[in-house]
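ok so for the tutorial part 2 we go from a plain amino acid sequence to predicted structure tokens. step 1 is just haveing the sequence, like this:
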Amino acid sequence: MPIRRIAALAAVPVTALLLVACGSSKVHGTITEKEYKPARTTWTTESVTKRECTTSRSGGKTKRSCHTVRTGTHRVAHRHPVCWQIELDDDAHELCISKARWDKVRVGDRW
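step 2 — the prediction. this is what the tokens look like for a chain of 111 residues:
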């Protein structure tokens, strides 16, 4: 995959996250912590299954029974975009904001 395409795909979730965080004007409080979180990828393992069915005949009737069989596992990527985070004193809100805003605010400022 070309680097430009990767960069463009990575920019979409970051932009969406910034728009959501900056648009939430209902969240207020005092900034108690600032933290930069670089972009990262975490991985989980999920089971892979398939459905197996068998048919049997008894007394002129056909019976079909199916069950799920585990066939292995595969890894699933979970991508987390870069985040310039502030934490508010209500202990309920951690917001990712734009780098420009993050650079301007300080711990103790009202949000």
